[in-house]
Amino acid sequence: MKSRNNSTRIQEESGKNWHRREQTYGAFHRAIALPAGVESGQAKAQFRKGVLTFTAPKREEAASRRKTVPIDVE
């Protein structure tokens, strides 16, 4: 995924296991490598109200590789 613009501002975000805050002013360029199990041809990006949202579905074989591992509880 690549993004270029003259100015942007990304607000602080956080979740259960992550936190991100980023502010950029002026010209910028950002490139993010996509995981191997993603259908890059069906990827979509939307920039709305200062927020860039990127979505890409998993490939079928990546989704089918899920494996349940039993947990031994003592």
What does this protein structure show overall?
By secondary structure, this protein is mostly beta strands. It has one domain. It contains one helix and six strands. The protein has one helix at 60-64, and strands at 2-5, 8-14, 19-24, 28-31, 44-48, 51-55. The strands form three sheets. Strands 1-4 form a two-stranded antiparallel ribbon. A two-stranded antiparallel ribbon has the order 2-3. β5 and β6 form a beta hairpin. The chain is flat and about 55 Å long. It starts with a strand and ends in a 10-residue tail after the last helix. The model has no long low-confidence stretch (mean pLDDT 74).
For this entry, give a set of tags.
two-stranded antiparallel sheet; 74 residues; 6 strands
Task: Map the helices and strands.
Elements: E1 2-5, E2 8-14, E3 19-24, E4 28-31, E5 44-48, E6 51-55, H1 60-64
Antiparallel strand pairs: 1-4, 2-3, 5-6
